[in-house]
Amino acid sequence: MTITRQHAHGLPYDSYSLHALRALPSLDDVRLWAGLGRPAGTNYGASRNPRGAPIRLAVQHIAVAAEMRDPNRPDTSAESVTAWGLNPTNRGASWPDCTDRDSWVPYLPAHLVRTWTQGKANRYGLDWNTIAWGQEQGIWDPNWNAKPDWFVKAHLRMSAAAWALVVATWNIPLKLILNQAELYRLATAHPTAPIGFSEHWVIDPEMRNDAGRWPLGGNRTTFPWDLQFQYIQEELAIRTGSIPGTPDLPAAPSADVKAIQEHLNFLGAHLDVDGYWGPLTLAVAHDYADVYGYPGDVTNHRALLTHLESTMQNVLTLLQETKGLAEAIYADQTQHLHNRVVGTLRKSKWPGAGNATFEDMFGATWMRAGKVDPVMLGDAVKAALAEIPGGASVDADAVAEATVNKIAARLQED
User: What is the number of domains present in the chain?
Assistant: First the structure.
């Protein structure tokens, strides 16, 4: 449970870990709103109008920040966004809070001051800046379909933990509205009633495409709202103590687990090679341990992978030896069939010569005849084998007949 005090442009801000955020009783218990260190009027209104009006709408934004996808390094995009906002030259910087895949930074208390959820402009007589809470995420572009699964889930988990504070405070329903006309209808029908969730582009479609506007248009989004709402429900349950355990941030896929899954699949399993150690991978690993004599703990991934690699080497060696034996047997069978074909050819009917046999046409010295030599005969037998279904298992007479036809055709060409 960590709250880290940091500084940017001479001003302090706090970065919360997931568990520190969950331990925060309410938004009123935030000890530092970093943006208040800047003078009122530069990037936020000094007070809300009317002061204390309820937050009715939750709006998801992205901050167009560099995405930090290296699982071996902490994500500092929320901190970078905050530092940008604290730069005195960025007069348009205004948002309540920002999350990334492992931290939350509170910036401006939108329930106490007027942040710019939609910029400075009001539309249709509605002041979204007064009734909405606009959460930023440290994300570069709005195409969520192109982001790694673990990365998306980590971002959503941190975002959900922050949204849970807002939802719990103002009873924001977990309902998504992506139709602008419907959003305005709900906002005006009941002037104080909670509305739900939306995205920045719905409020400001001419200027924005975040958090996940579908690139082909229409009221569609790539933002994974179903999963986000699931996570918010879990975070609300964690806050009330009604959920067993506390889901942590999802880990990045493991290279060792991917290799284990690939090896197990080679041995006959049908696992998704995703790098995640789930119940199916665990069950197959136990089966492997029983069959191949792995004595250790299958959850020790490095030790299991070492044993699997040794098993794979043994299997590959065995396969190579089997392949060599099979080739030797096939070569012997082919030679045997070749000899049978030669013998059968001597008695085969020559095409277009009545009852004359191959031997009748060429006499006892046919193998030494100028036009029919052993190489030519061998080539003809191979060609016949290739064209007859069943390959080396077919009847020698059928091969002989096909071979005679090919030799006859070759002689006619010559």
Answer: 3
Determine, yes or no, domain membership for 89: yes
CA dist 136 → 101, 107, 183, 206, 378 (Å):
12, 10, 20, 19, 76
Residues 116 and 230 in one domain: yes
Count CB atoms within 10 A of the CB of residue 121.
11
Amino acid at 109: P
Judgement on whether residues 227 and 354 belong to the same structural domain of the protein? no
Contact 385, 399 (CB under 8 A): yes
Please name which of 231, 61, 194 lies closest in space to residue 135, comparing C-alpha atoms.
61
pTM as predicted:
0.66
Length of the chain: 414
Question: Pick from 265, 291, 311: which residue ends a domain?
Answer: 311
The verdict on 205 and 233 lying in the same domain is: yes
Q: Looking at the predicted structure, is the pLDDT value of residue 272 above 90?
A: no
Q: Which range in 82-91, 117-126, 354-363 is most confidently predicted, on average pLDDT?
A: 82-91
* Mean predicted confidence (pLDDT) in 201-212: 87
pLDDT in tens, 144-197: 988 888 899 999 999 999 999 999 999 999 999 999 889 989 988 888 899 999
Rounded to whole angstroms, the Cα distance separating 404 from 327 reads: 27
